[in-house]
Amino acid sequence: MFRKVKEIKTLEDNEEFCKSIAQMLKAHLTVIPKLSMGILESRGRMDPADLDKFMNTVLRSRISRRVIAEQHLALTDTYHSPWFSPGAKLSESEFIGEIFIKCVAKDVIERCTRAVETIARATYGHDVELPEINVVGHLEASFPYILSHLEYIIGELLRNSVQAVIERRQRAKPTRASPPPPIEVTICEAQQHVIIRISDQGGGIPRDELPYLWSFSKGPQSEQRLENLGRVPKLAATMQELHVSDELGRADLKTPNYSSSLSSMTGRPPNLRLGMGLPLSRVYAEYWAGSLELHSLEGYGVDAFLQISKLGNKNEQLTTRATMDAV
Length: 327
What we know:
- There is one protein chain.
- The chain is α+β, with helices and mostly antiparallel strands.
- It has a single domain, classed as 2-Layer Sandwich (Heat Shock Protein 90).
- The protein is built from 10 helices and 8 strands.
- Helix 3 crosses helix 9 (277-287).
- Residues 243-251 and 255-267 have low confidence and may be disordered.
C-alpha cells in the first residue's frame, strides 16, 4: 500500500495519508482473532512450539507497524491541536504522539484497578465482593512508555488475579462474612528498570495448565477458546475494548482519537475468555525490552513480575525479514 502513496509535500497530502492509515488500521483489526483461530485449528498438525514461535513473530511484526502508524496519526493530531506551539518546551507530563513521557506506575495501576472492578461487577454481578488492591513500594516511579500497551498488560494481570480470588471464594462458599484476601501490588524502582509485582491468593494455577500458560495453542482448553474467538471478529488488544458500559470510560483509560482502537469497534463481552491475555502481554513487554514472568503456588496464589526499562533507551525487539522467513 505505502509504495503507491505519493511523496507527502503539503498538509493536505498528509491528511489524505492519515485517512489511508486509519482505514488500514481499522481493516487489520481482524488479524489477531483470525491468527489465533488459525493457530488453534492447526494445533494437531504442527508442533506447538513452532506455532507459538510463528504467532510471536507475526505479532511482534504487527506491533511495530501499528506503533509507527499510530504514532504518525498521534503526532498529526498534536500538530492540529489548538494548544500546539512549535518550539515550546515539553512538559514531563505530556505525550509525544503515543509515547507518555512520564508514565507513573501507581497512576496506571489505579486506573486499571477501576476498570477491572467494573469488568468484575459486569461478570459476577454488582453485589460481588471484590478483593482490595493495595499498591506499595516506590509510588513515584516513572518511565516513558506507550500507555495503551502498559494498560493492557497491567489490566490483564489484575483481571486474572481478581477473577481467581473471586472464583476461589465462591467455590469455598464461606460461612462467615470474611472479606476476600487482598491483592498486593509492589512497585520497585531500580537504576535502569522498574519491576511491578502483583501477588494474589486466588489458589494458584493448576499444574496441568502450566505448560500452556504462555502458549497460543492452549492445549486441552483449545476447543472452548476457538469457540470464544469465533464471537470476536475484531481485536485491538487494548483495555478500552473491554467496554461494559460508560463506567469503564470514566476509569480514565487513554483512548486515542483515531478510530482504530476505539472500543465501539472492537468491543467484546467482559466475561469472554480468549486465552490470549498472558501470551499477548508478554509479547508487549518483551517488545519494549522488558519481561513478564509468573510464579504459581498451587493451592495458594500467583506472583506476577513485570519488568520495564526505565530509561527509555532500549531498542524495540523487532522482527527481521530473516526471522519472518524462518518461521
